[in-house]
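[SOLVED] Predicted holo structure with 2-acetamido-2-deoxy-beta-D-glucopyranose

Edit: marking solved, answer below. Original request kept for reference. I posted the sequence and ligand SMILES and asked for the 3D complex as structure tokens.
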Amino acid sequence: MFFHRIALKGLALSLVHNSFVNAVVLPRQSKNPASDLLSLIGALDTSGADTASNPFTLPGPKFVITQKADDPVIRAAAIATKQLTFLYGPPIAGGPSYPSGATGLLRTAADLLAIQMDIRPELAGAVLDDTQATVNLPQYDGLDSVKDYTKLYPNNWENTLPRGPHPGAETNFTRDLFFSMERLSNSPYQVRRLNPSSDTLAFEIDDATARKTAGSTLQSLLTDGRLFYADYRDQKNLPPTTHYSAACDAYFYIDPSSGDFLPLAIRTNVGSNLIYTPQDTANDWLLAKIMLNVNDFWFAQWNHLAQTHEVVQIAYMAAVRTLSEDHPVLALLNRLMFEVFAIQSLAAGSLLDS
Ligand SMILES: *[C@@H]1O[C@H](CO)[C@@H](O)[C@H](O)[C@H]1NC(C)=O
């Protein structure tokens, strides 16, 4: 229990510190993080606000740390009760224990119900849009060129994308900068800078092609610390479906003159194991970028489940079981972990083949 408390405190403080306090509320170098945290909680306590329409409002009484509790005995008894009824049960969708016991199951059921109510309008919109798009199909008369795909958007998807796709997505979707920015916004942790003194090159690009694309050879990009690498080769070992799929790895670089982060080469690791670069024909290179995007989408789903949900959820469970409902750290976590116990049940139904 002691360990959990320490772990939790670290998690909560780092979550708060990194994503919230630094960005919005507190100056970067806080001299007294604990008291700053408490004043942050105080500021968030907007009692009287409409909690039904704003789930991010902290409800209830003033939150206090254990030492300042009005009645430590009652507070401790309430925690003991939680520990008897909010239990560590078997994992759902992999990972560590999942809530069990009377309150644990109730909480999971409540989160599931809440999230299903929340996404109802989106689901309804998706069904309407899907029907409309199917009705509109004949008007496209086939899709002959890459550009034809932009015809799919006007007068479609109006419920799910009322303002249409972002203008840049319609005009710039074949550009390399668009593709590399997708890397940074989808799974940035999947791309890493190669260290010239400890990393080796996974594959070679001939000097002429590298120079034409990036202005220098692969080796000098590496030496200059401008070379990046993304690796999805492990997807090669997954049971295949009837649909063709690659298991790409790829190089990216920072362009010395523009400072842009750009793709340099994509290797497929299946079939003829071709290496594509921006020097290929436009459609071949676009195909390579699509293949990498497919790999990244697959990666993102599993990585998010494993590195996000399965990590925070067990720390949150420890918090629920060991902290008073009046503890400011639990108040913050309740807010950050909104509906979180719905997710792994949903993942078990939609991501996993069970
Ligand atoms: C398309 O990309 C260019 C170059 O990065 C950028 O200047 C332009 O604003 C983008 N277009 C849209 C509509 O976002």
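OP edit: Residues 167-168, 171-172, 177 surround 2-acetamido-2-deoxy-beta-D-glucopyranose (CB under 6 Å). Thanks to everyone who chimed in.
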